[in-house]
Amino acid sequence: MLSRSVRTLRTGSKFVSKASVSIPVVASIQSSRFGVQTSILTRGVAQLGHFEAPRHITNEYTKLFTKDDVKDWELLKQELENFTTNPQTVPLVIGGKIIDSGRETKQIVNPANIKQSLGTYAQATKEDVKAAIESSLEAKKIWADMPFADRSAIFLKASELISTKYRHKMLAATMLGQGKNVFQGEIDCIGELIDFFRFNVKYASDLYRSQPPESATGVWNRTEYRPLEGFVYAITPFNFTAIAGGLVGAPALMGNTVVWKPSDSAILSNYLLLQILEEAGLPKGVVNFVPGNPVEVSDVVLNDRNFAALHFTGSTKVFSSIWSTIANNVGKGVYRDFPRIVGETGGKNFHLVDKSANVENAAYNTIRGAFEYQGQKCSATSRAYVSESVWPEFKKILTQTVDSITPTNCTQELQGFMGPVIHEASFDKVSGAIKSIAEDPELELLSGGKFDKSVGYFIKPTVVQTKNIEHPFMKNEFFGPLLTVYVYKDAEIDNVLEKIDTTTGYGLTGAVFSTDRLSIRKYEERLRYAAGNFYINDKSTGAVVGQQAFGGSRLSGTNDKAGSAALVTRFVSVRSIKENFGELKGHLNPSNF
Ligand SMILES: NC(=O)c1ccc[n+]([C@@H]2O[C@H](COP(=O)([O-])OP(=O)(O)OC[C@H]3O[C@@H](n4cnc5c(N)ncnc54)[C@H](O)[C@@H]3O)[C@@H](O)[C@H]2O)c1
Ligand SMILES: N[C@@H](CCC=O)C(=O)O
């Protein structure tokens, strides 16, 4: 009976396409009670088809910027020039309203050239944050009721805009504001950002299609994927424009509205991203942009009854402190719901290179894993365990190559391999660790060790060897271009596996390099919980949306896997609906004869 067409007539109710059911809906007629803001929907929302995500969703291509890509280099140079000659005034954006005066401002700094100001950005006051929450709640009234196809179309349109019209501008903003080279920019603010937007549409579409497998005769069971009640708070890191897009975009796609506190060190690209989303049709108030003092902004948000979820990426320390504030507030009955907490945090990611490894492959992957992105990837390789049998050859490639790398301003020396670290605090942390090497008898500097912040926050890629497998350098995240190596005796491999697993509290990424299948099997088993992303004969970095869902457990976060179907489920609250077409004629059951 359920294969028959169904005609629904619902007067006075909102029709919300939060879930597509597998039964063809011939007609849905309804009126709605939306207020002024929702006037576009006052004639009701018909569901006249079962819309699937476009079939062609696949990874965005990467422009390689080879020396033959003359036109792309030209366009990029123009955009870099535009930003450097036209300092930006980045406002707060609350309910679609631009607030760019009467607020304290801060400078947007180019980490490769700290005397160059790229503009200023406004700092939200507590009142602004309250207004952002109110706007989110107001916008939710239309956004949550907007059909999935329309919400999706906005993110697909934004993807297209980033891929074409804004590609070079987005690259320039990310390179200047976050110290990246063009290739790092392509992977981040173009490829991964677009992939998050497009693949989330596919994942959401698949989720909505997921309906109860059974309905008893005369009954229709349905599953509705409701947005969370209240608003979502997105706190985003500096190091990936894509991550900011994912943290804001995933909850919004699922019908939630968002208060977004961007990182102070990614303002240029993050504001451009918001502008692109608006151009793509994002209604006012769906995302409210409130840069500001993180503690003050969070204090207002986390004490609001309507706070429904945290979507965070950043350091373990900050995440832990926010978690404990939320837990405390749950205890005090501050919230309507138990807030969802989704957070991806730090890593201390390993490479294991065994005696059977292809040494050249292992060494070059280690260099890329440790020093691309200036080591400022949560997945960056920062500890390596290398067999004594292959160490001489491995060390030669590693040190000779690393010696040849000089970090540079990649917005001027456009072909540069490495840029600066992000800010003075990061520079001081990493350079402080490097300074300590000379006084530590358990450490030996093999390469690099130089740093200079007179022009930009430049740190030479640095390799240090330790004799202590549990040295703090094998344990703590520095989030910079610093790799520590421990050389092990082949007979010691079981102990090495044990130490890889237990030395640090993190569990984000790791890689093993071996050509021996039995050994690979053993590593995979023994290191099951040491990494949420485990690589075999590949570097510990570079997960691709739709290919390797990303995230780790232990101190590395909630492992909800950005870039996967699992993530979107965290921003919905499922409602089960049972409709009975039968009618009772009495209260007795057959056994009551
Ligand atoms: N696991 C992942 O997927 C992933 C990805 C990228 C970065 N990271 C991690 O992020 C860190 C680097 O990024 P970062 O320097 O931007 O991290 P961070 O923790 O310093 O800052 C992250 C965000 O939190 C905000 N913040 C800082 N203190 C706060 C507080 N007390 N309350 C509320 N918000 C606060 C910041 O302003 C920023 O927006 C590294 O630890 C890295 O491993 C993890
Ligand atoms: N997803 C990226 C990490 C981004 C975090 O900083 C990778 O796998 O390298």
From TrEMBL:
Reaction equations catalysed: L-glutamate 5-semialdehyde + NAD(+) + H2O = L-glutamate + NADH + 2 H(+)
Biological pathway: Amino-acid degradation; L-proline degradation into L-glutamate; L-glutamate from L-proline: step 2/2
Keyword hit for Amino-acid biosynthesis: no
Any Pfam family: Aldedh
Residue ranges of domain Aldehyde dehydrogenase in the record: 101-575
InterPro entries: Ald_DH/histidinol_DH, Ald_DH_C, Ald_DH_CS_CYS, Ald_DH_CS_GLU, Ald_DH_N, Aldehyde_DH_dom, P5CDH/ALDH4A1, Proline_metab_enzyme
Top-level enzyme category: oxidoreductase
Keywords (A to Z) from UniProt: NAD, Oxidoreductase, Proline metabolism
GO molecular function terms attached to this record: L-glutamate gamma-semialdehyde dehydrogenase activity
Active site annotation, chain numbering: 344
GO annotation, cellular component aspect: mitochondrial matrix
Ranges in a coiled coil: none
Enzyme Commission code: 1.2.1.88
Signal peptide: none
GO BP annotations, alphabetical order: L-proline catabolic process to L-glutamate
Family per record: Belongs to the aldehyde dehydrogenase family.
Protein name: Multifunctional fusion protein
Source organism of this protein record: Pichia membranifaciens
